[in-house]
Specification:
Blueprint: E1 2-3, H1 5-23, H2 33-52, E2 72-79, E3 85-90, E4 105-108, E5 112-120, E6 132-140, E7 150-154, E8 158-162
Antiparallel strand pairs: 1-8, 2-5, 2-8, 3-4, 3-7, 5-6, 6-7
Helix pairs in contact: 1-2
Length: 164
């Protein structure tokens, strides 16, 4: 696997800057969806141009893939070197489009596998920094029932690798 954390960080910086400087004041209400829709479309294009193309991966837009909801199976979020225990927030199973995040827990880093979904911030309509990776738990040796659930991991605690 190849470490592509820098590639994801370049995308994150472009996404964050675009929102914080050019779009934050254009969205006065979530009912006013035009500017928000345009920002989200640009975000998908940024991800394609800055992450997928350099990795020689195809666009996922035409395959029933939901950007920001479905995991990129080939982008593995891996605990950083030297981290034996990882603090994560695991969601309850999603029902009716709503998500509940549980209190942080600590799990052994060994035996846990995660797939990248997107960068996450608690208030995505204010100034954002996106301090978390939102991931999908692919495997968790200590808590096997977490498999398939979404999980937040602090970006400082993990790196992103591309599976070959």
């Amino acid at each position: 696997m190849r470490n592509v954390t820098d590639l994801l960080c370049e995308y994150l910086e472009a996404k964050r800057h675009l929102w914080n400087v050019y779009f934050i004041h254009k969205v006065q209400s979530l009912r006013q969806s035009g500017p928000l829709d345009r920002y989200e479309a640009i975000d998908r294009l940024l991800f394609h141009a800055l992450v997928l193309e350099p990795l020689n991966r195809q666009s996922v837009d035409n395959k029933g893939f939901r950007f920001g909801s479905d995991p990129f199976a080939f982008l593995k979020v891996v605990p950083s070197k030297g981290i034996d225990k990882l603090t994560v927030m695991v969601s309850d199973e999603i029902t009716g489009g709503n998500r509940t995040w549980n209190h942080p827990i600590t799990i052994p880093a060994k035996g846990a596998e995660f797939a990248f979904i997107e960068f996450f911030d608690w208030n995505r309509y204010s100034y954002v920094s996106y301090p978390y990776y939102m991931t999908r738990v692919m495997k968790c040796a200590e808590f096997p029932d977490y498999r398939g659930r979404d999980c937040l991991i602090e970006t400082k605690d993990a790196d992103v690798f591309v599976a070959r």
